[in-house]
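From the pipeline queue, job 12 of 40. The input is one protein chain; the requested action is below.

Action: predict structure.
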Amino acid sequence: MTGDGAELGNWTPANSIPLLEDANQENYHSASVYLLKGKTYEFKPLVLNRGDKSVVEWGDDPNIVISLPSDFPGGTFTLVHTWD
């Protein structure tokens, strides 16, 4: 996945965060990401060609949005996506 902010790769596919597939749940993918408090993030999953890191497929629109309130601690979160 990639999105806005350095934490999510700045919308640069080559800097994307790998989503790991759960062996026990089909189409269930997750990644641990450090997010900052008081910030809103937009991101989406994508499929990359392993060889040249070109984008094979982008996730559907709209982008996924997550907002962390300023009084909520930042930290490492597990982001989960199911892809059909």
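Job complete. The beta strands are 2-3, 20-21, 28-35, 40-44, 46-48, 55-58, 64-67, 75-82.
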